[in-house]
Amino acid sequence: AMQGAMAKAVALAPDSWVPGGKPDPLIARQHGHVGKPVSRLDGPLKVSGTARFAAEFSFDNMVYGALVYSTIAKGRIVEIDTGEAEAAPGVVTVMTHRNAPRLNPPPVFLSNPKAAGGDTLPVMQDDRIHWNGEPVAVVLAQTQEQADHAASLIRVRYAEETALLGFEEAKARGTRQGLFMGPPLHNEIGEAEAALAAAPVKVDATYRTPRHNHNAIELHAVTVAWQGETLRVHDASQLVAHTAWSMAQIFGIDAAQVVITSPFVGGGFGGKCMWQHHILAAAAAKVAGRPVRLVLSREGVYRIVGGRSLTEQRVALGASPDGKLKALIHTGTTAKTADNVMPEPFIMPTRSAYAAETMLLDVQTVELDMLANTFMRAPGEAVGTFALESAIDELAEALAIDPIELRMRNDPEKDPISGLPFSSHNLAEAYRAGAERFGWGARAARPGAVRDGEWLVGMGCATGTYPYYRMPGGAARITLRSDGHATIDIAAHEMGMGTATAQTQVAADRLGLELDAITFNYGDSTLPGVVLAGGSQQTASIGASVIAAHHALVKELLKTAGNDSPLAGLEPDQVASRDGGLCKLDDPARYESYASILRRAQRDTICVEASPPQPLETMHWSMHSHCAMFCEVRVNAVTGEPRVSRFLGSFDCGRILNPKTASSQFRGGIIMGLGLALMEETLFDERNGRIMNPSLADYHVPVHMDVPDIDVIWTDIADPHTPMGAHGIGEIGITGTGAAIANAIYNATGKRVRDLPITLDKLL
Ligand code: MOS
Questions:
Q1: Which helix (H) or strand (E) holds 254?
Q2: Which residues are catalytic?
Q3: Which residue's CA is minimally distant from atom 4 of ligand 1?
Q4: How many angstroms does the Cα of residue 572 sit away from the middle of ligand 1?
Q5: ipTM, 2 decimals?
């Protein structure tokens, strides 16, 4: 009986992230909310069209903005003729560098814990042009159509200068060590080149991945107003608090004077950070003295929102005949700009993937005169696993060992570079379960062996991985009402992944309440916390914040309960939340409801706010999500057309909080990986720096016809060292997918394609 009672009580969560700390009690399913496939709470708002997105808010007297983009990559504006545009119907203001307000440069992401910018370039402050597509004018008009038309009337004359645009040319001039979040992207264990040379079996190849652009369904948009001294911004954002702080720096005002709200976001993936449209809309609103709505066109997103940069990666593997890795070399070059901080860190997955005797990992960068590149779903891992896991498949072929068996022979017992133990590492189980469900045993080892009419059929697999992160700074507030309802306030984000739903489940379990007794408020920079929806770490961040706030709430409740309560004399670590109240952990009969505690104290509400301790867990453990990806392809022997016919993702990502929203995250990542493997490619003209396919007609992403039924399974093995036992799941799905598809194509055709995307011309 005591066991049963214990199982329903949620004790105060200890600090699972220090050695000796106890696992979060939510790892066990106490009240049954966590782990249930709860449908999205925002679903009805979405399907009924009542969810309001950034471009659907309006202000009185609002005008509409349109941008004019430079057509050269580098140089000066000699003359900008705005007369015709200013005289056009409905035009209110034209802003150029000549009349834009003086602004501070944007704080680039990672330069400060609250920075949100894509780069540090000054925005419309002088006549300089830094990339082809940089905004040179903002037109404000009474309607969007009038603004768009007037923008087309602006004539710009440039003095062009020679820009550095060619990747090969830039490499020839010399590369620089890549730095990612501080440390150099360079690791060495032993003498890898010598070990490679001495290895009896080896593969050594170069893999290339192209630029990718962000294509969230919702176009980037802001609706802004200066209300007295306050800048009010309706945004589509994955970092509201960061954006508020950053905008304040740019406009030289107090952070509290900027209010960013973003209740719904139509897709993020790393692209919905602060870019020039935020700054230009707010500046133009100042110039015009009127509120502004600025929605980027699809072309506009390509011109001013950075994407994933290109990479050229060498992977060289040396092995003994039994498949043990003697040498693992993963090096290469990526392009960035001089003004941003994001070298596509493609060696990240390789750091912890295999127990190789020697390793050499390195990312070099070149700096081009282009739009700043940025984070895109699993930056580093998405393209790094393509190269690494293609090479592993090539080695398996060279050794005549099954690719899964080869991976298992090199599955590391501890982190190969840091030497830290893994907090949770069940890749072998993910492979075992995945192989069984997918029918891996039916795969023909010899390439090109299976044919169905004019279709060549093949199977491939690959490992995916993504780190566990948790960022500091996320305070949460809990307000408990005398009717037993609780409100959680935190400046978090819902980009369609189910944050609000999963966090409502977590909070309900944590507080011992039903789902409908919880309100989860987010997406507002005036709420507590500095939370980033990125790095697949928002869930862990918020989870830790709510743990801290729950601690504070229990303390406050016990104080409030006083001597007449059945809880009198109990310390916080002796009680648990349960059934809408608190009880003694080892004597659940000693119970009082929240409502009763508040009533006796004649309180309407109890409100607490607290921050979690620093995220130290990654100093004690090597922490990663893993997956085993399985793909079946059919390649047309006549046309070369590749079709993914079956796909299975088998995940090891800790405790899954909501199987329904998690499945969608996994599938969404895999679909994006399918685009990476077969379609996506930004065409960057190296002669002039222009992106030549800035539309969804020219830049291909998977459509329904390209996507088979995608099967997803998971180990559901909790990580004892994270909040809720969970790992992030937003990015893992895109990792490993590209290689699984490339490996399946090899198995089907015998053709090894090492440059993405794998289009039909490469298979003929
Ligand atoms: Mo992600 S690329 O951290 O939104």
A1: none
A2: 731
A3: 270
A4: 37
A5: 0.97
